[in-house]
Amino acid sequence: RRIMYNTLKKIIALAMTSLLLFNMGITSLANVKNNENLHLTFDLNEDNLNTPKTITRTLDNGITETITITPPAMTRSEVASEGSWTTEGHWNFMGVEVCRLTYMFDLVKSGNQWTIENARNLTYEGTFVNVRNKQLSIGRATSTPTLAANVSGQADVTILENQWITVGNATPTVTTNVFNGQVDIALSGMPN
Predict the structure, then answer these.
(1) How far apart are the first and last CA of the chain?
(2) What pLDDT digit, counting tens, does each position of 142-157 carry?
(3) pTM to 2 decimals?
(4) CA 154, CA 162: separation in Å to the nearest integer?
């Protein structure tokens, strides 16, 4: 009995310590400044479009942000970059995926400009988050000589929401811009 009692005490102490450390980490997560956006930029005309492109960074507070864009499978199109693209944004803390946003869109060359069409399949997943108001929208369908075509996915997220505590609120956003053959994906808003 004594051994079971000591083992149970250790398990409870370990669980409480883990919860405290996780809560401290999530609290620091809520202090990220909204102006620290991560960007992934590449050239549709020059870069190898056969494999996904990814960029990752770890912030001072331990949050790891990742952007991945997956090009379309090679088709018979004369323009290799035309087709269905998948954009993903990930926010991780201490190895736990706090939030992941994914969407797809079609990219078509229109003369000298690019057109984004058929934005679809917006998904938000996460750990210890409550997701509301998911939105996927094309801000500008076709680029102009001075403005980018863009598509953006976002949602309102409450972190660690339950009847006792809410750590923070955020609006994670992943925006894909296409302008003059350049693609720029920006990851922002987690959390503010």
Answers:
(1) 49
(2) 999 999 999 999 988 8
(3) 0.75
(4) 22
